[in-house]
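Consider what follows.

. . .
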Amino acid sequence: MADWASTGDAYATSFAALCAGAVDAVLDEAGERTAGRRLLDVGTGPGTVAAAAHARGWTVAGVDAEESMIATARRLNPGIPFRIGTLPGLDEPDDSADAVTANFVLNHVPDARAAVAGLAQVATLGGVVVVTIWHGTTSPLRPLWDRVLDAAGLDRPAGSRLPAEPDFERDTTGVAGVLADGGLDDVRARLVSWDFAFAPEQLWSGVEGGVATMGGIHRAQDVATRARMREAYLRITAEIADPVDGLVHVPHSAVLASGMVPAAGGVLG
């Protein structure tokens, strides 16, 4: 898994826009499944979901395991409380929220079922938990990154999966099963899709800031190799950018799943 230490600002100005593609669907799902108006966003990053929920009238708080993400979220969203919190044992009171959201969080934890149980633990009885995770095991950006690494003379990273026991399929059936195993009822899952359009320099700033797997690879190189990576990236993105808007367009899909916390208890602890 990627090392996210000290990447808050770099993530906020680059890859956060990618994950923001699912935010409206997440909040629509939460609003459809609960009449309550308290929302806790877990793995909030720079506060994208929390800010959007606040704009919709929710009473919002956000938690994240990484200190730089919390610092960035507080700077960007001064009217929203943000604090450090790590799944599965969130230091939050039970019954903290009517809706608990986790946008692209389950792909960053070693045990997704335990994480779901942790999300459910801080929701009110009868509340809703909404999660997203990338559909499939290969990022749609992977072909771009592979071309960059090949051009720079670097090895492509090996694919990684969890150990067999905690692993699950990254499809609607697999993610729904994780929520059910985590103690949620009335689970449903569907695909959401959007076009991620980015300015090449903007996304590369995230790589240079150490964000995600590609950022970790970049961090490990010497100055000359980093320069080769940048040159290759700018050349390749210039080839594939839209000639009208100058942006690179890459379709993405995610599994969006939600489940209800049993009104009579029963969440795994």
Notes: The mean pLDDT is 94. The longest helix spans residues 223-240.
